[in-house]
Amino acid sequence: MHLVLISGLSGSGKSIALNVLEDSGYYCVDNLPSLLLQQLVGQLELQGYDKCAVAIDIRGGESIAMLPQQLDALRANELDLQFLFLDAKNETLLKRYSETRRRHPLALGDRTLSEAIAEERQRLEALIELGHHIDTSDVKPNTLREWVRHFVATDPGQGLTLLFESFGFKHGIPLDADLVFDVRCLPNPHYDAVLRPMSGRDLPVVEFLEAQPEVLRMRDDIARFVSDWLPAYIRDSRNYLTVAIGCTGGQHRSVYLAEWFGRAFLGRARVLVRHRQILPPNSGAL
């Protein structure tokens, strides 16, 4: 059985992720108490299910503290398991709750929403490093759906996945980044009126950047650093390594570099490329 476990902070997009998996043919269970996980998996295997997705979060109570041990037990039984942790910045969560007017599961009594979010983050801190960490703060729903599809398409049994992620510093540094490179010092296509509406995936922007010697030097320096240290991260038994490349707006320089690195590192690891500030190709509006 292929089991996808989803956890994370309330308001971070877990329902979106679960809906994507349900649409992809997974048997989905939301708000399962952690104590019942192994029982559920055993029952579904007996019934012949081959794909299952389960959301386990703070709504299930104190038993979520047992989740790390349960994941170890499931992996020891050679279950095909992927763990996805969704996160978002506090200000983003506050805004989302304000817009939806829903109650946070820990906002009980006279506890404020900010206090509830802080407590939840503290109680879930031990889960962040258990699997793949996605910061959904500046991510549109269609983009998150695409990222979840890419996540489940990777084979968790084949070692480290190397993820190159572009972002804009004016939107903040992604919470899920392991390595962060600042490329704001490079020539900016934004100041060319013709290139401004394009992205780093468009050929005119690529040609502009590759004509700049400092862009090539920065590109090669980052590639050399990641290449030199990649074996150490693999020896550390990591499942994912997220390399974030940031420019000012996350549209031109960082996008170009993330795309280039994605191609350059094919064959060294399983590679994914993400862009936080631009939509995936062929991604329509909601």
TrEMBL record:
Lineage: Bacteria, Pseudomonadati, Pseudomonadota, Betaproteobacteria, Rhodocyclales
Domain RapZ C-terminal: 161-278
A single MF term (Gene Ontology): GTP binding
Protein name stated in the entry: UPF0042 nucleotide-binding protein
Keywords: ATP-binding, GTP-binding, Nucleotide-binding
Organism: Rhodocyclus tenuis (Rhodospirillum tenue)
DNA repair keyword on record: no
Tree of life domain: Bacteria
Positions with a binding annotation for GTP: 57-60
Positions of ATP binding: 8-15
